[in-house]
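Lecture 7 notes: from sequence to structure.
We start with the chain below.
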Amino acid sequence: MSRVRRILLVVPLLSVIAIGAVEASVGGPALAELLGWDARASKVFFRIQYVDEGNQPPRVFCFDLAARKPAQLTRVSWSERDRQDSLYDANLAALRRRLRPLDEHLCETIPAETIVMGVDTSRTRNGPWARYHVRVRDPMCLGDATLEMTTVGDPCVRLIRQWTIPGRSERIALVSFRGLPYETGYEVQVPVLLPRPGEPARNVELPKRDPGVAVHHASSQDAQACRLTFDSALESYPVEPGRKSAIGFESDHVVPATQ
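Predicted structure tokens for the same chain:
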């Protein structure tokens, strides 16, 4: 059976028109970096850099495989700082000294199957965005695992890296998609502990940087006009259902959801 089908997705008109220039940059992508595996603590550590005008250091997160919810990214408190100072650097250096590398596996970055389960419209300061509720499968790269996420402006998902933990069966993937609806839209990279066979689909979402930390704007007027946070970028927008147009685009690797 062919792994590729072509369909025409109908999306809101304004979501496919390039957003015009804004007065100042307010955000950027969220990029993830693997730090390593702490065998004694049974934790895998990552750093996520939320690129915006705040210039705050990358936040450190971990998967605690001994916890009740091992797939939940847990924030490391010492990384919650307004600037990268000597204390942050010392804690990071101490962490790196006790970490081991993971075993990386080569895999395709484009999933075999990307299913758009639903499309709606969200309104932001930069105008309306098409919001896609997506399910991803790939027997070759993900095995029996199914991933679900919400993307904005583009339903495409990439599996950019994948690792296994030395001496263990767990696998971790680094998933990339457009998930931040600021300006022209920004990429998010999210590490995911893949579900085991028989486990339900894993929801993929950007972890909170800090509770209640707002996006840094160029002015207080901008901040008042747009009360957005990185923490809830995919959850806080009011949905405007049913706003469609006859303008669409084609995707070579998206298949329709079965009814």
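Points to note: The helical segments are 86-97, 139-142, 220-225. The longest helix spans residues 86-97.
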